[in-house]
Design goal:
The complex is a heterodimer of chains A (499) and B (426).
Chain A: E1 2-7, H1 11-20, E2 27-30, E3 47-48, H2 59-69, H3 71-78, E4 82-83, E5 87-91, H4 97-109, E6 116-119, H5 120-126, E7 136-140, E8 144-146, H6 148-161, E9 165-167, E10 172-177, E11 183-187, E12 199-207, H7 213-219, E13 230-237, E14 248-250, E15 261-264, E16 270-273, E17 277-278, H8 289-302, E18 311-319, E19 328-331, E20 337-341, H9 347-364, H10 390-399, E21 406-408, E22 413-414, H11 415-423, H12 429-436, H13 449-460, E23 478-479, H14 493-498
Parallel strand pairs in A: 1-2, 1-12, 2-9, 5-14, 12-20
Antiparallel strand pairs in A: 3-8, 4-8, 5-7, 6-7, 10-11, 11-12, 13-16, 13-17, 13-18, 15-16, 19-20, 21-22
Helix pairs in contact in A: 1-6, 1-9, 2-9, 11-12, 11-13
Chain B: E1 9-14, H1 18-29, E2 35-38, E3 54-56, E4 65-66, H2 67-80, E5 84-86, E6 89-96, E7 102-108, E8 112-123, E9 127-129, H3 132-135, E10 145-147, H4 148-158, E11 160-161, E12 165-169, H5 173-184, E13 188-193, H6 203-210, E14 217-218, E15 221-227, E16 234-239, E17 252-255, E18 258-261, E19 265-267, H7 270-274, E20 299-301, H8 312-330, E21 340-344, E22 348-352, E23 355-356, E24 362-368, E25 375-379, E26 383-387, E27 396-400, H9 402-406, E28 412-419
Parallel strand pairs in B: 1-2, 1-8, 2-5, 8-20, 10-18, 12-13, 12-18, 13-14, 21-28
Antiparallel strand pairs in B: 3-4, 6-7, 7-8, 9-19, 15-16, 16-17, 21-23, 22-24, 24-27, 25-26, 25-28
Classes of the chains: A alpha+beta (499), B alpha/beta (426).
Chain lengths: 499, 426
C-alpha cells in the first residue's frame, strides 16, 4: 500500500510529487496519458505572476506570491526554462488608469514593493512597438515566463529520482475502500501497450485531476463542486517577431479573465492569447475562427504590427475553473481523499506553494512526514546546443558525435539532445518536441519528424508504426503493405504486438 | 571528393539539391578549381530523391526522367568534376571578413564544428512547405495532419503510409503527386480541396494525377475544421466566397484519418536573413543582380531559395549560371554593376533577377497574379510577345537580347502582362 497516490500528472500533481519526495513516504503518481504535462499544463500560457492580479482574500490570491517566489530556486535545481522578464498592465484610455492604480496598491498591500507606474513616455521608450494610444502602465519586474511543460517534466523526473513511482497510461476509473483502511483506485486500460486494469491502494489520495477533478471526486462520492472548463486559445507567432515586445503585456483585466496577452515566451517567440470561452466539453481543444478573431482583433490594438499572418502554430487548453471560482484544496467527506482541484490561473505560479500546503494538510490528516535526509534536489539539465556559444558547440561536437548531427534544422536541435530527452522520460513525439523544441519551429516538423520517430523507435524498441504523437491512438504511420493485410495500429494493439 | 572538406575553397555551395549540384558544376566550368557542396542529408539530390515519379528533364535533357535519375546525372558529374561534397553537414552560419573572405560554419558528426574558408558562396538551400499554422485551420491538433512532402518522404523513402483515408488541402504539385501515389498504395483519397478558383499545380499533374484516377478536385473550397483528438477522424470542408470566407451553411464533414497539406512553398532564407541580405517581400528570396549575386558581394543565390520554380529544369539552368558567376567572382572577375532595374507591372507578381545589364543576354523568370488567356507580355517599350495563356502555377520565361537593352536609356524596365487586344498577328 502506498502512503499517497496522486491522481493527475499536471504541474500541480508533479509539484506535489516532488515535495513528497523530500519525506519517507511511498508515493505513486497516476497519469492517464502517455506522459505527464500533456493536459492543461502543456497548453498553459507559462506566466509566473507577480501577484498583484488576485486579491489576498482568495486561496489563489494567498498562494500566488509565495509560489512565484519559489521559482528562482526551483529553476536553479531543475533547469527548466524560466526568466523574470517583467510584466506590464497597460491602460488604453484615461478611464483605465484608476484600475491599474488599484492593482498597484493591491500589490503593495500584498507585499509586492517593486511595482512601478509608468507614464506614456516611459512606456514608449521601453516598448516602442506597442500602440501609441496606450497612456500608462503598471510595471511588475518580478513577473516572469516559464516553459510549463519543462517545469513539470523536471519536477517529475526529480521526484522519480527520489523514489516516487510514476505510472503513465493509468486512468483512474473507480474508487473503492481498500482492504487496509485506505482507498483503492481501479485503473482502466490506458491505451496501446498499457496494463489492463490493475489497482492501487493508498492511505491518502490527492485529486489533482485538472478538468476532470469533479469526475474523480464523484468516484469517491464527493460531489460538492463542479469543474466548469474555460477554454483558452493561444497563437504562436513567427520567430521573426522575436524582440518586438520584451515584456509580458496585459490589458486591464475583466472579471472573467486577465484578458488577452502578448507573451514573449522563454524561448523568445511571441505568443498571443488566451481567449476565455466557457465550454462543457472537457475534450474541446479545438481552435476556432472566433477565437482567432478575438485574439488578433484585440492584440492588434495593443501592438499594431502583430497580425494573424504571423501565426506559425495555434492550440487550445482548458482551465479547470471550479464552481467556487477559487482553488479547492483540502480534505473531503471521504476519509483520505483530498481535493487539489479548481487550479485555474494563477495555478502554475502557485504550484510550489500548493505543494507545500498539501503536505501540511497531509500532516494534519495524520500522515507522518519525516525528512529523508538524502533527498537530491537537482536534475541534470538538458543541453541546448543552439544557445551555446560557438566554442562550446565546437567542444561538445568533438566530445560527443551525436551533437554533430542536427535533427531539427529550424531550432538547431542535435541528436544528442533527442537522446537526452528520451533518457529523461520522453516516450512520444510530443514528449521529444516539448523537451527539445524539435518540431516547434517554422517547418513544424516537416524535416525532423521522421528522424525523431527513428530515434524513439530505436531507443524504446518500438516499430515505427508504434511511435505515437502523444500516446493512445495518436499513431503517425502505418506500414506500407497490401491494404487488406494492414491492421489499424490503434484498434488491436495486442494482435499487432504478436505478429 | 565525397565526404571531404579541405579548404580554402573558391566556391562553397550551401545545399546539395538540384540547385546546389548545378551551381557547383557551373563554378567548375568557369574555371574555379576548388568547390565544395554542403548538404544536410546523407545523400545529395535534395527533394529529387523522394520524387520517384517521372516528368523531370523534359526541357533540359529532352527526355523524361524520375527525380533520382535526374539527380544522378548531376551527382555523377559532380564526382567526376572533382568537386568536394560533404553530406550530413549542417551550415550554422556564414560570416564575412572585412577583406571579403567568407567563412562557412559547418557542423557534422564527421567534422565536428568547423569553419570553412572560401572566396564565394552560393546559397542553394531550396524551400520548405507551408504548414498548418501558416494558414490557420481551426479545430483539433491530432496526429495525421502533415505536409504532402513529409508524406512523400514517409512513403517513398521509408515505406510507410501516413494513413489510409486521406483528404488533401491545396493543389500544389506535391499534393497532386501524392494523391496519385497514395491511391496506387491502396489508400483512399477522398478529395483535393483548393481555396483558389484554379489549381496551384501544373495542368499536367491535375490531368495525370487526379483526372486519370477519378480523384475529385474541389476548387474554391477549404478545410474549415479538423476533427479528432488523438488522430484525425475527419475534416469539415466548405466552399468559400469571393473573400475566401468559408460558407458554413454549405459545409460537409468527411471521414478520413489523414489530412495532407499542399498549400505552397517558402524559400528557406533563414541563413540569408542572418547575413542581413536584402530580400524580395514577394518571392521571399534574396534580391539578386543579373549575375544572381545578392546584396552582399561574392554571395550568390539560385534555385528555390531565390524563388519557387515550377520545374527543376529551370532550377538547373538558373543555377548553372549562378555557379558560373560565383566561379568567375572567385577568380577575381568583377563585372560592372547592373544599371537597369526590373520591376513587376500589371498582373506580374514578381520577376527575377531584379536588375539587368546591357552587357549580356538575360533570362527573366516571372509569375502572373491571375490567369489570362491569351495575353501579351511587354518589357518596357523594348519588346512585346504574345502568350497563349498564363496561370499562376506556371513560371513565365522571357529572354532579352543585349542589343535590345543597348537601345534602352532609362533606368527602370517594367514588365506587364496585358490582355491580348484582339488583333492577332502571329
Amino acid at each position: 500500500m502506498y502512503d499517497v497516490a496522486i491522481i493527475g500528472g499536471g504541474v500541480v500533481g508533479c509539484a506535489i510529487a516532488r515535495q513528497l519526495a523530500h519525506y519517507r513516504v511511498r508515493t505513486v503518481l497516476l497519469e492517464k496519458q502517455a506522459e505527464v504535462a500533456f493536459g492543461t499544463t502543456k497548453t498553459n500560457s507559462g506566466i509566473i505572476h507577480a501577484g498583484h492580479h488576485s486579491t489576498p482574500d482568495t486561496l489563489k490570491g494567498s498562494l500566488v506570491v509565495s509560489g512565484g517566489d519559489a521559482f528562482d530556486r526551483l529553476c536553479e535545481d531543475l533547469h527548466f526554462g524560466f526568466r523574470r522578464i517583467g510584466e506590464l498592465v497597460v491602460a488604453q484610455s484615461a478611464e483605465e488608469i484608476p484600475v491599474i492604480e488599484e492593482l498597484f496598491s493591491r500589490g503593495r498591500s500584498k507585499g509586492i514593493h517593486d511595482l512601478e507606474m509608468w507614464d506614456a513616455q516611459r512606456l514608449r521608450r521601453e516598448e516602442p512597438n506597442l500602440s501609441h494610444h496606450l497612456c500608462a502602465a503598471l510595471f511588475a519586474p518580478r513577473a516572469g515566463v516559464v516553459n510549463p511543460y519543462e517545469f513539470a517534466f523536471a519536477l517529475i523526473e526529480n521526484a522519480v529520482a527520489n523514489g516516487v513511482e510514476l505510472r503513465v497510461d493509468s486512468p483512474v476509473v473507480a474508487i473503492s475502500d481498500g482492504e487496509d483502511g485506505g482507498l483503492c483506485l481501479h485503473l482502466g486500460d490506458g491505451g496501446a501497450g498499457g496494463p489492463m486494469g490493475g489497482r492501487v491502494e493508498a492511505r491518502f489520495v490527492l485529486n489533482c485531476a485538472g478538468v476532470y477533478a469533479d469526475r474523480i471526486a464523484a468516484l469517491a462520492g464527493v460531489q460538492d463542486f463542479e469543474i466548469l472548463p474555460r477554454k483558452g486559445e493561444e497563437y504562436m507567432l513567427d520567430k521573426r517577431l522575436k524582440g518586438l515586445v520584451r515584456r509580458l503585456v496585459f490589458p486591464v483585466p475583466t472579471p472573467a479573465s486577465k484578458g488577452i496577452l502578448i507573451i514573449p515566451t522563454f524561448d523568445g517567440t511571441l505568443m498571443v492569447g488566451p481567449t476565455a470561452f466557457d465550454t462543457d466539453d472537457r475534450e474541446d481543444l479545438a481552435t476556432t475562427d472566433l477565437g482567432a478573431d478575438t485574439v488578433f482583433d484585440f492584440v492588434s490594438q495593443l501592438c499594431p504590427s502583430i497580425t494573424r499572418r504571423d501565426t506559425i502554430a495555434e492550440f487550445a487548453g482548458l482551465r479547470a475553473v471550479s464552481s467556487s471560482n477559487d482553488f479547492i484544496i483540502g480534505p473531503t467527506s471521504r476519509r483520505g481523499f483530498i481535493n487539489v482541484a479548481g487550479i485555474q490561473s494563477p495555478g502554475l505560479t502557485a504550484s510550489p506553494a500548493i505543494a507545500t500546503l498539501v503536505c501540511e494538510i497531509l500532516r494534519s490528516e495524520g500522515l507522518v512526514l519525516e525528512e529523508r535526509g538524502d533527498f537530491t534536489p537537482r536534475v541534470t539539465g538538458p543541453v541546448r546546443f543552439a544557445s551555446l556559444d560557438v566554442k562550446e558547440q565546437q567542444r561538445l561536437a568533438a566530445e560527443d558525435l551525436r551533437f554533430g548531427r542536427v535533427v531539427c534544422r529550424c531550432e538547431m536541435v542535435t541528436e544528442g539532445e533527442i537522446h537526452h530527452a528520451i533518457d529523461h522520460g520522453a516516450r512520444t513525439l510530443d514528449g521529444v518536441k516539448f523537451r527539445t523544441r524539435a518540431g516547434m519551429g517554422r517547418c513544424q516538423g516537416g524535416f525532423c519528424t521522421v528522424r525523431c520517430m527513428d530515434i524513439l523507435a530505436q531507443r524504446l524498441g518500438l516499430r515505427l508504426e508504434e511511435v505515437t504523437k502523444r500516446g493512445s491512438s495518436s499513431w503517425i504511420v502505418v506500414p506500407r503493405r497490401s491494404p487488406a493485410a494492414v491492421t489499424h495500429p490503434s484498434s488491436s494493439p495486442q494482435t499487432l504486438a504478436e505478429d | 571528393m565525397f565526404g571531404r572538406i579541405e579548404g580554402p575553397y573558391d566556391v562553397v555551395v550551401v545545399g546539395g539539391g538540384p540547385a546546389g549540384l548545378a551551381a557547383a558544376l557551373g563554378a567548375r566550368e568557369s574555371g574555379a578549381e576548388r568547390c565544395l557542396i554542403l548538404d544536410r542529408e546523407p545523400e545529395p539530390g535534395g527533394i529529387l530523391n523522394q520524387c520517384i515519379h517521372a516528368g523531370f528533364g523534359l526541357h533540359y535533357f529532352r527526355e523524361e526522367l524520375t527525380g533520382p535519375e535526374y539527380a544522378e546525372r548531376f551527382i555523377t558529374k559532380v564526382i567526376d568534376g572533382e568537386i568536394d561534397l560533404a553530406p550530413d553537414t549542417y551550415v550554422s552560419g556564414v560570416s564575412v571578413d572585412s577583406d571579403g573572405t567568407k567563412w562557412v560554419r559547418v557542423l557534422s558528426e564527421r567534422f565536428g564544428l568547423k569553419h570553412v574558408r572560401t572566396k564565394a558562396v552560393v546559397l542553394a538551400m531550396g524551400c520548405r512547405e507551408r504548414t498548418r499554422g501558416a494558414i490557420r485551420i481551426p479545430g483539433f491538433r491530432p496526429a495525421g495532419v502533415l505536409t504532402a512532402g513529409l508524406a512523400q518522404k514517409m512513403v517513398n523513402m521509408r515505406g510507410y503510409l501516413p494513413g489510409r483515408r486521406v483528404a488533401i488541402l491545396g493543389s500544389g504539385d506535391i499534393g497532386l503527386i501524392m494523391a496519385r501515389r497514395l491511391t496506387l498504395e491502396g489508400c483512399e483519397v477522398v478529395g483535393v480541396f483548393e481555396l483558389m478558383p484554379y489549381s496551384n499545380g501544373l495542368t499536367r499533374n491535375v490531368v495525370q494525377c487526379l483526372d486519370d484516377f477519378g480523384i475529385p478536385l474541389h476548387l474554391s473550397t477549404t478545410v474549415a475544421c479538423i476533427h479528432g483528438r488523438e488522430r484525425v477522424e475527419g475534416v469539415t470542408v466548405a466552399p468559400v466566397d469571393g473573400h475566401f470566407r468559408a460558407q458554413m451553411a454549405q459545409a460537409r464533414t468527411l471521414a478520413c484519418d489523414t489530412l495532407l497539406l499542399s498549400i505552397g512553398l517558402i524559400p528557406e532564407n533563414e541563413l540569408s536573413q542572418s547575413l542581413g541580405l536584402r530580400l524580395d517581400v514577394v518571392t521571399g528570396g534574396p534580391l539578386v543582380s543579373s549575375t544572381l549575386e545578392t546584396s552582399m558581394p561574392g554571395l550568390f543565390a539560385c534555385g528555390n531559395v531565390l524563388h519557387v520554380h515550377d520545374l527543376v529544369d529551370f532550377v538547373t539552368a538558373e543555377s548553372l549560371l549562378a555557379g558560373r558567376f560565383a566561379g568567375e567572382w572567385a577568380q577575381g572577375v568583377r563585372r560592372p554593376a547592373d544599371n537597369i532595374s526590373l520591376v513587376p507591372g500589371d498582373n506580374v507578381r514578381y520577376c527575377v533577377p531584379h536588375t539587368l545589364s546591357p552587357e549580356r543576354e538575360h533570362t527573366i523568370y516571372l509569375r502572373c497574379k491571375e490567369a489570362m488567356k491569351p495575353c501579351r507580355i511587354r518589357v518596357g517599350d523594348l519588346m512585346e510577345k504574345r502568350l497563349r495563356f498564363v496561370v499562376p502555377a506556371e513560371m513565365i520565361m522571357v529572354k532579352i537580347k543585349p542589343d535590345l537593352l543597348a537601345r534602352f536609356h532609362g533606368d527602370t524596365l517594367r514588365v506587364d502582362l496585358v490582355p491580348d487586344a484582339g488583333a492577332v498577328e502571329d
